Amino acid sequence: MSDVIHRYIKPQDTLLMVGCGNSRLSEDLYDLSYHNIKNIDISDQVIRHMTERNESRRPDMMFTKMDATQVDGIETAALNCSHCSACA
Questions:
Q1: 2 burial class (0-12, 13-18, 19+ CB within 10 angstroms)?
Q2: What's the CA gap between 66 and 56, in Å, rounded?
Q3: Within 10 Å of residue 30's Cβ, how many Cβ atoms?
Q4: What pLDDT does 7 receive?
């Protein structure tokens, strides 16, 4: 999927991955120089796992436990792209 998405976004864009789960999409995009990625998921376990999996290789990638209907603390006006994994 990253091979399609990266055609429509720029590396400096801010991306929101809604319901990120344990998908590799954010990791793949990060490795293609997209470092402004905010990942949200409702599962504590997923957020812990993904944070641990990425903290050393992708230190700028953020994982936050959050309900997609309550995006508190994320400035949505500053987002350039959002992706819902459940919709892909």
A1: middle
A2: 23
A3: 21
A4: 81
> Dmax of the chain from CA atoms?
32
Question: What is the dotted CATH code of the domain comprising 2-87?
Answer: 3.40.50.150
- N-to-C CA span, the chain: 9
**3-state DSSP of 18-72:** ECCCCCCHHHHHHHCCCCCEEEEECCHHHHHHHHHHHCCCCCCCEEEECCCCCCC
pTM comes to 0.82
Q: How do residues 4-50 score in pLDDT, each as one tens digit?
A: 777 888 888 888 888 899 999 999 999 999 999 989 999 999 999 99
* Residue extents of the structural domains in the chain: 2-87
Q: Which structure tokens are listed for 31?
A: 């490795």
